[in-house]
Amino acid sequence: MGLLNYSNKICLAPMVRIGELPTRLLALRYGANLVWGPEIVDKALVGGTLVQRIVNDRVNCIDFVKPPTNKVLFRVHPLEANRLVFQLGSASPDLAVQAAKLVADDVAGIDLNCGCPKHFSVHAGMGAGLLKEPDRLISILRALVKEVGVPHNVSISCKIRLLETKEKTLALVERLCSTGIRAITIHCRTTPMRNTEPANRGYLHDIVDLCKKHNVAILVNGDVSGYEDGKKLIEQYKLDGVLIARAAEKNVSCFRSEGPLSNRNLALDYLKMALEVENNFGNTKYCLTQIMQGAFRKDVRQAAQCAKSYDELKNAFALEQKHSDASGIVSAPGHEKSIMFAFENSSKLLKALSNEITAKQLAASSFTKLIVYKPDSEKIEDYPDYNEKFKSHGIDLMIASTDDLASKIGQSNLIVCSKEEHSISFEALSTHKQILQFSSTELESLYNTQEESNRANDFPNAQADFFYDILFKKIKGFNTKKEVTA
Ligand SMILES: Cc1cc2nc3c(=O)[nH]c(=O)nc-3n(C[C@H](O)[C@H](O)[C@H](O)COP(=O)(O)O)c2cc1C
Questions:
Q1: Which of 255, 276, 294 is the last residue of a domain?
Q2: Within a domain: residue 483?
Q3: Which candidate among 194, 364, 407, 439 keeps its CA 20 to 30 Å from the CA of 474?
Q4: Structure pTM?
């Protein structure tokens, strides 16, 4: 999967119950760069019967299920590729390695929880219990790096709390940096401190300097309220990134650069996402009722709280819609619109699109922003600089990377994407975007035609008509249609 790049990242912190798939996917859609899953203890994966890895075609996910009940322990979506960190609870190098190996090929990072102050964790020598036994903590990290990180090409990290004194914290960080881990998250509170006490960043600069000296990424957690605050802290303390927990628990759209959504709109997005990925009903109800607090009429909240099935949850929302039209979350395209192209071979596509006819057609359909998704497999140098060409038609050209794919999908009014790229079409469809899909064979003919035509200087020619006909017919019609597939 390739090692994680932790630099300049605003991330969803690990949270049991909250950090299941719907929250993670929404966090990514709203702009989070990386997402941590909820802590799962090693024994849940390897104790008794081994967890099984199952490809779930129905929701296009990988499920880790526990026989004999086959309860889903962890569900991973392809949209999380390169951006998902699995958090492990462990007190033993052997168990940690066995458990981490089971998920290593489906996640980008594995993080050891060394900060949970809860009795069940500390009592078993896990979480903050590890801070009291640094030798064991170090041996777990070394084992994870050697036996999982290196062979599976997955990044190993840990999340710790401050110790009682600056000297003790720095001494521990120095030891952690020598284990081969790639990142440390520091929750700026000591173990006895409750979350209601303000985070202590008093000597954060020293911790940052130490990590930088060892080339280990440093991420900070504690009282980060959202996108703006995160960016400010990254700059102020020269951090690699920040992790946001409670602010995201309350409203996961805190990752949006343009500010959070109202809890009403968020609740609707959450329910739709939970349905799309078939999230466990009990978990959906728990997360949803948290989001709904104070944001819905009392009778609606009560109906949600009493719901025993997804149908009953939907009925609760139907009750709400009697009072207000909640369909406003599917934003109507305004005057200025964005179009996004997302294919595996986008540099070729951009070359094929960069002709006068395309630019004029896009401008005629009021598109002022053209977003082209650059998959990780392509180099930015492969993208010719067509900015001026499109600019002369009043269109801003923007190249989006995997990191900001979800947020760019969120900003687009129409998404033209590959039929084979399920994660893109999933995100586009679940955000209720207009979507137009082409297969790679259809596109291939466009590329080839364009290359021939370039040589003959007569683009587009008759063979490209197929693609262009469908594309522009649909683009022109897209205001009135909800979903478009070629
Ligand atoms: C509901 C909830 C669940 C949490 N679960 C985890 C967890 O699984 N692993 C972990 O390392 N920290 C967990 N934490 C702690 C947070 O990741 C974070 O360290 C803490 O809340 C401080 O960050 P904040 O001030 O942004 O909330 C949890 C916190 C909350 C509120």
A1: 255
A2: no
A3: 407
A4: 0.76
